[in-house]
Amino acid sequence: MAVTNLKIEDFESTIENNDIVILDFWAEWCGPCKQFSPIFEAVSEKHPDIVFAKVNVEEQQELAGMFQVRSIPTLVFMREKIVVFSNPGMIPESNLEEGIQQLCDLDMEKVRQDLEKAQQENS
C-alpha cells in the first residue's frame, strides 16, 4: 500500500479498520521532513499490510494536537488502536524497519494489561 494523506475525518476509520498504522507528522517547509519522505515511501512499499499515513501538521492541527506533536518529523506507531511508540526526528530506513518488526512482534495482550495497570495506578 502506498502512503496516504490522513485527515482528521478519516482518522477514526483508519485506526478502526487497520491493525497497524504508522503516522508521519510533517510540514511542507520542514527540511528533515522532505529528506525522510522518500524513506517512508520506500518502506511503505515493502509492507502492503501496514497503513503508512502522512499528516500535514499545518492542515491537520487537531490531529497533531491529539498526538502532542512538538517537533517534526514525528513518527507514531500504532497497533490495535494503541500508540505503542512515538519518535520525534528523522530516523534511518534500517531503524524504521527495526521498529516495524518490533511492532509486529509485540504481545498486544501484555500491552493492554500493562496499559490497564498504569491507568489504575494513575487514578
From TrEMBL:
Gene3D superfamilies, sorted:
Glutaredoxin
What are the catalytic residues?
C30, C33
Paired cysteines (S-S): C30-C33
* GO molecular function terms noted in the UniProt entry: protein-disulfide reductase activity
Top-level lineage group: Bacteria
Q: Does the keyword Ribonucleoprotein apply?
A: no
CDD domains in the record, alphabetically?
Answer: TRX_family (cd02947)
Q: Where is the Thioredoxin domain?
A: 1-105
- On whether Disulfide bond is a keyword of this UniProt record, the answer is yes
The record's listing under NCBIfam families reads: thioredoxin
Family membership noted in the UniProt record: Belongs to the thioredoxin family.
Record-linked PANTHER family: THIOREDOXIN-LIKE PROTEIN 1 (PTHR46115)
Q: What name goes with this protein?
A: Thioredoxin
Q: Which organism is it from?
A: Hydrogenovibrio thermophilus
